[in-house]
Amino acid sequence: MTQPMEINIGISEANREQIAHGLSRLLADSYSLYLKTHNFHWNVSGPMFQTLHQMFEEQYLELATAVDEIAERIRALGYPAPGSYSQFAQLTSIPEETGTPTADEMIRQLVRDQEAVVRTAREVFPAVENANDEPSADLLTQRMQVHEKTAWMLRSLLQ
User: Fold this and answer.
1) Mapped to the 3 state alphabet, what secondary structure does 54-117 carry?
2) What is the pLDDT along the chain (159 residues), one digit of tens a residue?
3) 134-143, long-range: CB < 8 A, 24+ apart
4) At what angle do helices 13-43 and 49-76 cross, to 10 degrees?
């Protein structure tokens, strides 16, 4: 069996490990939000059904792409990406929803959860900046922009 090649991308192993752990938390939050948004897409009802059904679909499709990008960045840093429900449950800050809330409550939960993903991304940013990890910084910046905008759009539905 051959030994894996050393990763020499200008970021120390300790920094890569710290960043990969932070990105793993972001991945868990993003996947948990994906699952909840998909659930709400399936189960929304009421006068805003068509609008929310379509909006939630757009959001979970965007998240499906995002989780892949986050996991691939973790792999590029030389670490395995978490990929099981139990791993995600340990790492995520997104509360699980097992019931069928009202449409307004779905929106409130998604606003809260979109903002939670932003906070997680922001918490990872200092380690990324410290290591001069521009690809991870770019990924985090893009994720924060998407989640902040999505939270704003959802929040607007409640006003």
Assistant:
1) HHHHHHHHHHHHHHHHHHHHHHHCCCCCCCCHHHHHHHCCCCCCCCCCCHHHHHHHHHHHHHHH
2) 777 789 889 999 999 999 999 999 999 999 999 999 999 999 999 999 999 999 999 999 999 999 999 999 999 999 999 999 999 999 999 999 999 999 999 999 999 999 999 999 999 999 999 999 999 999 999 999 999 999 999 999 998
3) 135/73, 135/76, 136/19, 136/23, 136/73, 136/77, 139/23, 139/69, 139/70, 139/73, 140/26, 143/26, 143/30, 143/66, 143/70, 143/117, 143/118
4) 160
Domain count, the chain: 1
Q: Where residue 33 sits, what CATH number does that domain have?
A: 1.20.1260.10
Which pTM value belongs to this model?
Answer: 0.95
Structural domain boundaries, residue 126: 13-157
- The Cα 33–Cα 155 span in angstroms is 16
